[in-house]
Amino acid sequence: METAEQLRQGEQAESLFTIHQIHHVEFYVGNAKQAAYYYRRGYGFKWTGYQGPETGVKDRVSYLLEQGKVRIVLTTPLNPDSSIAQHILKHGDGVRDIAFHVDDAAEAYKITTGRGAEGAVEPHEVSDNGGKIVRSTIKTYGDTVHSFIETKDYNGFFLPHFEPREDNLAEPVGLKHIDHIVGNVDWNQMEETVNFYRDIFGFRRFVSFDDKDISTEYSALRSTVVANDNLWIKFPINEPAEGLKKSQIEEYVQFYKGPGVQHVAVECEDILQTIDQLRKNGIDFINVPEAYYDDLLERVGDIQESIEELRRLNILVDSDDKGYMLQIFTKPVEDRPTLFFEFIQRRGGESFGKGNFKALFEAIERDQDARGNL
Ligand code: FE2
Q: How far apart are CA 4 and CA 204, in angstroms?
């Protein structure tokens, strides 16, 4: 086996075991029934599955919501002593588990803990009429975890103890799959976290920007993206940096009471249509100053979308040498300024939108200037 040091020096680390995809993302929330309604009505997720006392799970209730290949599980505790309740007390609503679909959950646990990951739940079987799964869990940044889920001996619905549901309320808005999930860590923890993903999973450093990058000054963050070998799993890791204003990452860490998932980015079939519908559904997005669109084409080159439509919907564009991408960020989806969503459509571009930090701040300054306040 390669040592961590060899991996650190390697140009392209290889995954140490197969991770097929993100199996699901589990949120711990204060009231899953109401959160489910928000994601169904607001984001168009179909409520497809349920577990709780009626299905043999006594201490919690979970709602499975799906759209395209995105699966989210909203879980709420049924008593105050539960570790789920403690998690919510400390962090508010947030992402607890980014669960991976693997071939062998016991092996994944053995490899990762053998390379230094801290175990959370040892490999164990869970079964119902549909067969059995094997599941294990390790810790990552903050109180966030990664579960490994093995389903080769399971033919039932989703996971044992979940029952299917039919949803006639939600209207899907064209979401396809998760593009990336961003973790915020505290001051000077980014390298350590990036090394964790490299050493534990064999993920490689995909792209990073740092002090020398002008975007740091405007966004007050440093970021490095780690990715698995087939690039289906991309995790940007942010840490606060000194900038023109207080770092948004520092604010997150203060309110989340530690590191955690900052945003989940979802790829859309047609972002113009998706955002038009999400706005009709009452979803709030961050506002983009008018001036951002004035020099958009000079900045990103030719694009197929109409600038007027992008301006109307407040969608951002960033480009790199491979193409461009369109993106937009929601406001936080709970009252603490913590978790939010990003919607994204890639047209060749592989970036995560760093060009937009500078462009957004410059646009704000142009507006300020126009008001005579710069
Ligand atoms: Fe993002």
A: 12
